[in-house]
Amino acid sequence: MARPSETEAAQTQPPEELHAIGEVAEATGLTPETLRIWERRYGRPVAVRLPSGHRRYTTAQIVWLRRVAEALAHGHRPNKVVALDDAGLDALLAGLAAEQPRDEASEQLIALARDYRGTELRAALEARWAQDEPVAFLAEYIAPFLRLVGREWADGALDIRHEHFVSELVQDTLRRLRAGFEQQSDRGGVLLTTLSGERHGLGLQMAGLLCASMGLPYHILGVDSPNEEILRAARELDAALVGISVSLSTGGIETDRQLSALRKLLPAPIRLLAGGEGARRARRGPRGVEYVADLAAWADALRTLESA
Known about the structure:
This protein is an alpha/beta fold. It has three domains: about 5-100, Multidrug-efflux Transporter Regulator, Chain: A, Domain 2 (Orthogonal Bundle), CATH 1.10.1660.10; about 105-180, Methionine synthase domain (Methyltransferase, Methionine Synthase (B12-binding Domains), Chain A, domain 1, Orthogonal Bundle); about 190-305, Cobalamin-binding domain (Rossmann fold), CATH 3.40.50. Helix content is about 55%, strand content about 10%. The strands form two sheets. It has a five-stranded parallel beta sheet with strand order 5-4-6-7-8, with helices on both faces. Strands 1-3-2 form a three-stranded antiparallel beta sheet. Helix 11 (about 200-215) links the parallel strand 4 and strand 5. Helix 7 crosses helix 9 and helix 8 packs across helix 10 (about 160-180). The longest helix has 21 residues, at about 135-155.
């Protein structure tokens, strides 16, 4: 059976399945302003208007927007992707998925998440942590699992509630693992945060665990941080490096602009790194910003601080 288009879904879904624009922004990482611009410029996504005039969106539209955001984060332009029909978007994402093969370990974790078997899922993560080096645990176990969750979510095999369940459980687990390392200093080291508009913080927890395991001072500022606040925190903490996590939902030209502006604000000795699924680049980024393609590259960057 063919999947309904997002326009058809907007017209047929019952009111109880509608979501406010802020909820859509949180679920997709796309800002409310972006959604409004796309509706004016491309005629999509078509918001359902309540008698009050407020915009509402269906769950099907959220799924579509997540799929669009994934394509954008891999370097495709909004004017090309948003205009694609469902078959075209399917084909585009299938090509991306082919570059990220599924693995048995991630499939097993997905099965636990689908059934809300949180105790078993947490135990599986902790057991793997006990076997692996930190970089291998994060790069070869956690990251593929999270990518598969995102793909299953976008394809409709998992629902929003499953994705939220996984996100909270993994973040809680990473925090607990990080707490097992004693921080040697409250100054210097690494400042971890996301840019304004970015609400996904799992990458910060992963980077923080790497810092902790390497004995580096680190400070997690959290998500959605304006550039001016990042600058102040970096100065006050005497940070040697600022690490920015970029999710698939926000990677793109606007993120490049924000990173370029941040680079101009930060004192020259402070390194600026951008990592995460949305920071993988097919084009040249802003001058002075170091892009790390994966967690292994992030670990390499941290080792230069160790030896400094």
